[in-house]
Each structure stands twice: as structure tokens, then as C-alpha cells.
């Protein structure tokens, strides 16, 4: 987690405290030429998912204090950092984490509610139950639609 904080601090020092995904990608990929743009996007997603960046309108802000944050002189980012932090999760795990982060509920509690929905409707997948849960609770989960559809097509 410390390396992720360092990455965010580096980008914030270059681009300001209000960070857009494009700023993150441009700084790591084009300005410094450290990682490929897709890898920079993955690191950005990891930072958001780890709640190190929170969305404020059209930009993101660090959730930790940047003041006094010192970067090592030899600081850099490479593809090994991306591999260390970015692990492809299945869509259900991503959805479950998103619901827990959005609602503040424990995983166990959300899983119980998802299983209730799944059992009530019988012939749906757990991913669909998660989408229904989001809809019932006014949680925007549109970023997961394509992934869920892709998973259903493989069944």
C-alpha cells in the first residue's frame, strides 16, 4: 500500500491534488515513460478500489494527507509494480467489493442479502443478484454490466 500512496503522491505533486484518470495515465506513461498506458489505468483502478483515491465530482482526491509526504530520491514505477497490485478478479468479487465499499456493509451481510435474492428468483446467477441488489439500493453499478454480460455468455 505504501508504494500506491507514493504513486498517488508523485502524480499529485506533478498535477495537483485534484487528479483525473488522464492525469494519472499521462504522468506515469507519457511524461515519465515508466509504464504502458493500460498499466497506468490498472494502477489507477487499484488506487480507487483500495480507497486511496475518492471521487469528488469529475476528479479524484487522495484520501490520505499529502502534506509532509516524502518520496524516495530513486522513486519510479515499473511493470512489476502493476503485477504486484493488479490481480484480475472475477466480476462477482469486484461487484461484491464495490457494494461493500459503497454501502459500508460487511461482506458477510451483503452475501446473505444476495443469496436471498438469488433464492427468491431461482434461476439467476449470483452476479445478476448483485446487480438487482444494486438497483434496489440505488447503487450505480453500470460499469459492471459488460463484464456480467460477458460472464453470462460463457455459461
What does this structure look like?
The protein is mainly alpha-helical. It has two domains: 2-85, no CATH class; 91-153, no CATH class. Helices cover 60% and strands 5% of the residues. The protein has helices spanning 2-15, 21-31, 37-49, 79-85, 91-103, 107-121, 126-136, 145-153; strands at residues 53-56, 59-62. Strands 1-2 form a two-stranded antiparallel ribbon. A hairpin with a 2-residue loop joins strand 1 and strand 2 (59-62). Helix 3 (37-49) packs parallel to helix 4 (79-85). The longest helix is centred in the C-terminal third of the chain and has 15 residues, at 107-121. It is elongated. The mean pLDDT is 88.
Q: Can you give the helix content as a percent range?
A: 55-70%
CA-CA gap between termini: 35 Å
Overall shape: elongated
Tally of individual domains:
2
Biggest sheet details = 2 strands, antiparallel
Structural class: mainly alpha
Strand content: 5-15%
**Overall radius of gyration:** 18 Å
Structure annotation, total helices: 8
Average residue pLDDT: 88
Trace the largest sheet across and list its strands.
1-2
SSE order, as H and E?
HHHEEHHHHH
Spans of at least 5 consecutive residues whose pLDDT stays below 50 are: none
Amino acid at each position: 500500500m505504501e508504494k500506491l500512496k507514493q504513486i498517488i503522491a508523485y502524480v499529485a505533486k506533478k498535477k495537483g491534488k485534484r487528479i483525473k484518470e488522464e492525469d494519472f495515465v499521462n504522468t506515469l506513461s507519457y511524461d515519465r515513460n515508466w509504464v504502458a498506458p493500460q498499466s497506468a489505468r490498472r494502477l489507477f483502478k487499484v488506487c480507487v478500489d483500495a480507497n486511496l483515491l475518492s471521487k469528488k465530482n469529475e476528479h479524484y482526491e487522495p484520501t490520505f494527507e499529502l502534506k509532509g509526504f516524502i518520496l524516495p530520491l530513486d522513486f519510479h514505477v515499473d511493470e512489476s509494480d502493476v503485477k504486484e497490485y493488479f490481480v484480475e478478479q472475477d466480476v462477482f468479487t469486484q461487484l461484491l467489493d464495490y457494494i461493500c465499499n459503497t454501502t459500508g456493509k460487511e461482506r458477510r451481510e451483503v452475501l446473505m442479502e444476495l443469496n436471498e435474492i438469488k433464492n427468491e428468483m431461482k434461476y439467476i446467477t449470483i452476479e445478476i443478484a448483485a446487480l438487482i441488489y444494486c438497483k434496489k439500493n440505488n447503487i450505480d453499478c453500470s460499469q459492471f454490466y459488460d463484464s456480467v454480460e460477458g460472464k453470462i455468455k460463457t455459461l
